[in-house]
Amino acid sequence: MGEFALGVELRENQGKGVARKLRAAGRIPGVCYRRNAESVAVSLDPRELDLLLRKASSGINTLIDLKVAGGGDFDGRQVLVKELQRDPISGAYLHADLYAVDLLQKIHVSIPVHLKGTPIGVSLSGGIMDQATRELDVECLPNAIPEEFAVDVSKLEIGDSMHVLDLEAPEGVEILNDPDVSIVSVVAPAVVEEAAPAEAEVEAAVGAEAAAPGMSDESAEKKSDD
């Protein structure tokens, strides 16, 4: 098997009970599928998959050489992890969907956007950087999937922003997002207006007077009669 290879085993039974037994044995259920073909139920070692994805610089978009114990239509094919279910608390892998790709057929994948550098509007002017888009949808051949979109933000000043149209995609890669979608911007920090000292003292005095118990109109008239 190649550098990024994953071994799986065929499984006949399905359902929650089977999934629990697999996880108790240190494996998880998975499904292999591809265009115009029936899907195949498999099981795999989640630790092996996790190690592979951590080792590969492309992460979830890594092309994986699949090795199916016992052979079959998916044995030796290259696949992508199309969906990976995790436990919401522990983060452990629960289920994996593996999609066999045609190396000559373009596919749609999501690519992470990583910001590089510190905007001068942040370091020199105290601005705040706001990243609005963290992934971009692209279309490309499986062997041309970019690892990331690295966006240099070091020259951005307060009021500046970058949009999808400002990015340059690698050759053979088409960005599918709206060109006008914002990637990142640098905004001025929020200003909290404070009352002037004199105004604050007057407001405090008025508030204290209103809060203090006072005489009713009837009591005031009686006091004046006395």
Written account of the structure:
This protein has 226 residues and is α+β, with helices and mostly antiparallel strands. It has 5 helices and 13 strands. The protein has a 6-stranded mixed beta barrel. A 4-stranded mixed sheet has the order 10-7-9-12, with no helix packed on it. The longest helix has 15 residues, at 197-211.
* Main sheet attributes: strand count, strand direction, barrel closure: 6 strands, mixed, barrel
The number of E-state strands comes to 13
Provide the β-strand percentage band.
25-35%
Query: How are the strands of the largest sheet arranged?
Result: 1-3-2-6-5-4
What would the keywords be for this entry?
226 residues; alpha+beta; 4-stranded mixed sheet; 5 helices; 13 strands; 21% helix
Task: Kindly summarize this structure in a few lines.
The chain is an alpha+beta fold and 226 residues long. It is 21% helix and 33% strand.
